[in-house]
Amino acid sequence: MKSQKKHTKRIVISGLAILGLAATQVAEAADLVTQKKGRAPSSELKLKQSNVPQFDLVQKRMINGKLEPVRVKNIPRLNLGEEDKLKASQIAPVEIPKEKVFKTFTITQLPKVAPISIEKYNLKNVAPAAGPKQIVKIDPGAMAPDIPQFAPVTTPTTADIPKPDLKKIDEMPPVQMKMLQALIFLEIKKNYNMALALFAELLDEKDASVKTEATYLLALTSKALGLYSEYKFRMLQVLSDKSPEWQKKAAYSLAKNAAEGDKELVPVLDPKLEAFNIELEKADQYQMNRAKYYLDKGDLTKAFSGVDEILMDSPLYIDALFLKSLILYRGNQVQEAIGLQQTVLADVEEKRPKSEFRSIVALTLARLHFQAGQYKEAFANYLKVDKTHPEWMQAMIEQAWSQVLSEDYEGAAGNMFSLHTDFFKKAFTPESYVVRTVGYLNLCQYGDGAKVVYDFKKKYTPVLKQMKDYETKMKDGVNYYDTVKTWAKNPDLQTVDGLPREFIFSLTRHPSFILEQKMINSVEDQVTKVNQISIGLIRTERKALTAQNDARAQLISIKKKMDAASDKSSYKEDYAYQEKRLMAQKIEHYIAKKARNSIKDLRTEGLARLDQEKTRYRSNAGRAVKARFNQMVTKLNDTLDQSEVLQYELYSGAGDHIRYQMAGGDISKKERPELKVEKGKDLNWDFRGEIWEDELGHFRSSLKNVCPPEDKLSSNMHGN
Question: Does this model's pTM top 0.85?
Fold first, then answer.
């Protein structure tokens, strides 16, 4: 009965659709069908988007006050519910529409197909159907092509194979064997100490080709050990060899491995490079040295060609631009030099803001602006020089001069005042007193200017006498260097050889001395490395000896175990390994011991040569110190002479100013703020005993300009 009702339901709905019942009536009929719902599923049942039931195998439960995940062991029987129950009796009776909605159809019967007449279509000549197929037999033998008969195979005859002529293979001579050992240590093992000793032994060979090759490889080994002096000496020997091939190799190597500041190599190497037409790649340091050498000689064309070879991807590109700027300045192209220097400073401030090079670039750019009369730009760049740089005080003085030339006298006087406080009481800055006095003179502060001149004479007149006495006693530059060296070892000394500490300190801060001292330090480092080579060989020898003893002990232990064991095969591999190890350590001990003896002469010659270089560099440093000393003596003497002129100007100006004030004249109200620092950074001082380092360079004098207006002063002077 139930199935009948369901069937009735389908018929009714289908009938409604066929009859074109309105959509609202179909919807109402569907609502009547689904009025009764089936049994709801269990509340624990979860359904996916696809309506597939699922059950979580891991559930969270409260354990010790915390929700912990627990795996369900027994899956419960889930109630999936029942489907909705439908009853056909609940469907309301369908009302068929009264309007006529059917169309009338006429059904006709298709005509039968008439039979085809043979006579009508003239089908009498049609071929009859084919009969059964006939099979034709073919004789394969009759149709096969003729094949010629093969020729009979003859029995081969053998001939005797000629025996090769045996030639005696010459064994590698001892010289070549030693060269091979040295190359293994140099290129594969990277044991440069052993390689150096073996190449040193080969220097005594009579064969010129072997000796030249050993010298070349000895130079490369020295370079790997950081012994630039030995490398350069040996490579120059190869450069003077008779063979053009070896000369070319040596020239290229020297250019590629040139050390910073080695300008002595340029006049020797440049003719060889030109003669062999060698195209240098990745020899940027040599190009820098070459440019500096020709710049010192005044050949700006060759100097410019040197730095122009350094490309943008080189680590020395910015240094090359800096040097190129100096070359342009020497060629009177000041504006081009300034533009290039600005590019360098921008790059250095971005990539190396804390480097010493940044201060050098800033100071150079400031001086270029100063030379071009661009005092405002010069002032800004002088401020960028770091206070730890050796030229910082000189930069402060030049900065003050830029303020004076821009008529910013308050700023010039204020900044120079900061150098005269106890913060810099041990500094040697005589020129700063002149700048400060000039500032006061232009502010018509004659009393303060006279006080500065008095303090200057009091401090530096005795110093000038000490310098002249020292100059009388010391004639050689080495004496000047020894004085500096003595003070460097005892920096707390107030005087050395009659010179005050602040003066010696100023001598040591000059770049000319610093450059030569770097070369001396480099030689000292190489002396230490030469001594370490011998120590390294001794350590290698002892290490090999210890390893030998250990290998022997291992062999004895393995031998005892082999004698006691029934199966000796398991010990044979270890025994063979220890035998090889013992032999290897014996060879290494022998070579190290021999190398230590072989290197003695090389070490003695190298240390003697380094000592000669050190003496030469000390002589250069002494000449640099002496030249700097003479400059400072001359400058101090001239400054003291200038102080006499300034003192006269102060007294003369003071008298005129007093007469002008007595006549009721007004003071000038002109302000010149163009070189003042940013607002909030300038400091008007009334000194009470303390100066902060970060305030240096930003001081301004609180003394105001009390000079009369220029037009009134000139008319007053005319009237007088």
Answer: no
